[in-house]
Amino acid sequence: MCSSNCNELRQKVGIQVEAAGVSKLDKKIIRALQGEFPLVTEPYKELAESIGISEELFLQRVRAMEEDKKIRKMGAVLRHREVGFKANVLAAWVVPQEKLDAIARQMAKHPAVTHCYDRNTAPGWPYNLYTMIHGHSREECEQIARELGEENGITERTMLYSKREWKKTSMKYFCE
Amino acid sequence: MELTAFDKELLNLLQGNLPVCSRPFEKLARELGTEESVVLQRVQELKQDGYLRRIGTFFDSNKLGYHGTLVALRVEPEHIPEVADAINGYPGATHNYEREGRYNLWFTLLTPSEQQEKRIIAEVSTLPGVEDVLNLKAHKKYKINVQFKLQ
Fold first, then answer.
1. Interval B17-65: pLDDT, tens
2. Quick one: pLDDT at residue A5?
3. Domains of chain B and CATH, by start
4. Which of A16, A49, B18, B58 is the most exposed place for a label (fewest CB within 10 A)?
């Protein structure tokens, strides 16, 4: 009953939902949005026209994808080195399983932590929590990591400083 | 080029939210107390001068049905350039860094299926010079928020 209603609704608005829960229309919109964002007075109109739909429908779908969190952010990402954040480190921590969730939440609150994930371990690799720390210098990164460790009572960590960037791109979805 | 107080205010605002409306730069201009044309011109200049890595939309890969992981490799140092190049050839390998430590090459991988992820990791494991591979799947993402408050 519900599903047939949903299907009717989908047909009405011309949305065909695919396996991953992303409609053909939304895939087109995603492909348009992941390119260069036009720096013009009416950017969404330009993007909508590029895929042959109205600006109104385009904006409506962008808002819907924001709402269901498919879009995590609309905005800019800076080149951190150029704006003064010259050092970064991936700090990996060994956290007791029962404290993992609470400590991950606590570390995520720190403004210098841009990414915080828990990950599986491997034989000889006991680290289960990862924080990306950005600072103005290597010393500042060390200081922040020391603070995070002390605040949370975690002593075992490894500091994975980057030596060279071989690739940094943003993903192009639905291009396979 | 030095960033002015206006630039910093603009960049702080732009990092947080690009309005989803017909004239987003006009809305930003109003918040900054200036004209749409001023904002547009400055954003273009800041982009040209390399301050902006990207302006636009950032998606949640899992919500779009993609699988993601972080792969750590131990590679013989003299083989790093070829291994890095081979990894860069996969469109789903979005970040690839040489790092200090026992595992010296780290890349993030996004694929439409788990099978494809396994296949790519298996291919990478057989590259000359690759001694060990860790597939470090995330369980929960507590934070993804690359924002730098400029003062």
1. 899 999 999 999 999 999 999 999 999 999 999 999 899 999 999 999 9
2. 40
3. 5-48 (1.10.10), 67-136 (3.30.70.920)
4. A16
Which residue type does A19 have? A
Taking CA atoms, what residue in B is nearest to A104? B142
**Domain boundaries A87-161, corresponding CATH code:** 3.30.70.3460
Q: Which two tokens stand for residue A89?
A: 């480190």
SS3 at position A103:
helix
Indicate the Cα dihedral angle B49, B50, B52, B55, nearest 10°: 80
Contact indicator for A84, A78 with CB cutoff of 8 Å:
no
Percentage above 90 pLDDT, chain A: 76
Tokens (6 digits) for A114: 């841009």
Q: Which residues contact A137 (CB under 8 A, 6 or more apart)?
A: A86, A87
Using the beta-carbon criterion (under 8 Å), do B51 and A83 form an inter-chain contact? Answer: yes
Residue ranges of domains in chain A: 2-67, 87-161
Closest chain A CA to residue B145: A114
The token pair at B108 is 């993030």
Residues of A in contact with B106 (CB under 8 A): 90, 160
Chain A residues with beta carbon closer than 8 angstroms to that of B108: none
Predicted confidence at residue B17, as pLDDT, reads 84
Q: Which residues of A touch B84 (CB under 8 A)?
A: 166-167
Block residue for tokens 């200036």: B34
Residue with tokens 């609150």: A109
Report whether A52 contacts A100 (CB < 8 A).
no
d(CA B85, CA B129): 13
Asked whether the beta carbons of residue B40 and residue A40 sit closer than 8 angstroms, the reply is yes
Q: How far apart are CA B22 and CA A40, in angstroms?
A: 11
> How far B112 CA lies from chain A's nearest CA (Å)?
9
Greater pLDDT, A42 or A36: A42
